[in-house]
Design a protein that fits this description.
- Helices cover 72% and strands 0% of the residues.
- The protein has 220 residues and is an all-alpha fold.
- Helix 9 runs antiparallel to helix 10.
- The termini are close together.
- 35% of the residues are buried.
Length: 220
Amino acid sequence: MKKFRDLINDGEYEDAIEGLEALLKGDPYNTEVLTWLAKAQFKIEDYDQAISNYNTLINLMPTEADLYSDRGLCFHMAGSYTQALEDFDKAVDLEPQNSYRYSCRAFVKGYYKDYKGALKDYNKAIELDPDDAIAYNNKGILEEQMGHAEEARKSFDRSNEIQGIDLDKELARINTTSAPEITLPESDVKKLTFKGYWSTLASIFTKKGFKDFFKFLLRK
């Protein structure tokens, strides 16, 4: 399996899929093979096949919260909002004390402009993990979208404080007049392009937050 994990980590998704599918023929319910196959299929935007494999995995391991989160992301990328939220809801139900589950659901809710629902989830994530700088950062972005400028400033300040960022020094190093406006992506029920969506993620997450969200997409 290490060979195929390395192929996926190196971006050789097609080669990994070919090899994993061959393994699966001899052992169709191998959960490790199914998991990595679904991840590779997600990477090439074959969401239908990824969802199919996550369906099998969930039937085999119905209490694994990660599987619902991963399938939920596939549904989200395929434009299936209702099914995506059902999976994120299930992940929260399975791990109600895991702040990360609320942050992930909040991101998707915010994407579809359920700002109040997303804000509630970010607040819950922060309640469970008061030192989660990423939740504060993304909460601040959401509050900006809602027109709550003062609340957004406080969230950004707290995020910077946790991360040890001196904002005055950072602003002195950049030309703020040319900085692009940060906005959440527009809701679209059509299938999303992974490349374009990835650039959107990069623009709204801090570096640490982007790394954390990447772990959500591809766990080792």
